[in-house]
Amino acid sequence: MAATRLATTRVEKPWGRHRLWPGFDDPQAGAAPVGEIWFAASGAAQPDLLVKYLFTSEKLSVQVHPDDDEARAAGFRQGKDEAWVILDAAPDATIALGTRHALDSAALRAAALDGSIVDLLDWKPVKPGDVFYSPAGTVHAIGAGITLVEVQQNVDLTYRVYDYGRPRALHLEQAIAVARAVPFVPHMAPGDVGDGRRILVAGPKFVLERWSGGDRKVSLPRGVDGWLVPLAGAGRVDGAAWRAGECWMIDGGADVAAPPGSDMLLAYPGAALATVLARGN
Q: How far is the C-alpha of 198 from the C-alpha of 185, rounded, in Å?
């Protein structure tokens, strides 16, 4: 059993921001805005999951991801389900998930070409603490003024449907082939399970938990890694010091010490839940 701090990559984006989340240094005056922060494991093996922070000042592209079978048919190892945990949001911030009514392929193509797709999406208001699970095939877009953590299947595979005239490639035919342009059905998770532990997402591709402060012993199923994401506070994991703004990979299990006021996420692939023993909560 071991806990390893993952490397951090700051990704500059024109739609990013100069004010980030506590735990990250803001870009210097005059520097390009930062839109994403990625956490990557070292070595040749590609982990099952990827964790990112996103910081938006503009609407992101309308996009869709293929499922596992569709991705493998295109030469990729897996598709992309993803989940978002909203950390901060402007009063009018929204995220689009699904369409307001079902669209067939011809209607989706026409709406993407003339830009009316934006008005056909189901834009949902968001606030800190909200959680959204977006299965592969969901037509979606993240709005402006949002800070979130994204947990996703680890594959760089996105089909853009519409991008507000930005000079980036679209993937309209691929997107139409995999999109389920229908009203969104929210994912239901178990919720609070005691000891300051809340299940935000429970499968089918990964589990996502949120913890408050407390000392815990985490045991994951054999062969399953976990991603520990401290959102606030500082403590120790298997004797190593962690702080907000980091991401740690847990191999099999770990002892996690988190003082009162801490706020953490734990993600791991598969639908089986971890065993978490809390002490001193």
A: 21
CA–CA gap between residue 112 and residue 181 (Å, rounded): 12
Give the rounded distance of the alpha carbon of 26 from its chain centre: 21
How far is it, in rounded angstroms, from Cα 108 to Cα 159? 14
Q: Rg (Cα) of the chain, in Å, rounded?
A: 19
Within 10 angstroms of residue 76's Cβ, the number of other Cβ atoms is 15
If 0-12 CB within 10 Å is exposed, 13-18 middle and 19+ buried, where does residue 90 land?
middle
Other residues' Cβ atoms within 10 Å of the Cβ of residue 192: 10
Catalytic residue among 19, 77, 160, 279: 160
Across 165-187, b (16+ Cβ under 10 Å) vs e yields: eeeeebbbebbbebbbbbebeeb
Q: Which of 95, 101, 84 is nearest to 62 (CA)?
A: 95
pTM of the model: 0.95
CB burial of 109-136 (b: ≥16 within 10 Å; e: otherwise) equals bebbeeeebeebbbbbebeeebbbbbbb
- Round to whole Å and give the CA distance between 225 and 227: 7
* 160 belongs to the catalytic site: yes
What element of type H or E holds 178?
A: helix 172-178
pLDDT digits (tens, 9 = 90+) for 11-41: 999 999 999 999 999 999 899 999 999 998 8
d(Cα 277, Cα 156) in Å, to the nearest integer?
A: 35
pLDDT in tens, 42-100: 776 789 999 999 999 999 999 999 999 999 999 999 999 999 999 999 999 999 999 99
Distance CA 101, CA 141 (A): 16
Q: How far, in Å, CA of 117 to CA of 47, rounded?
A: 34
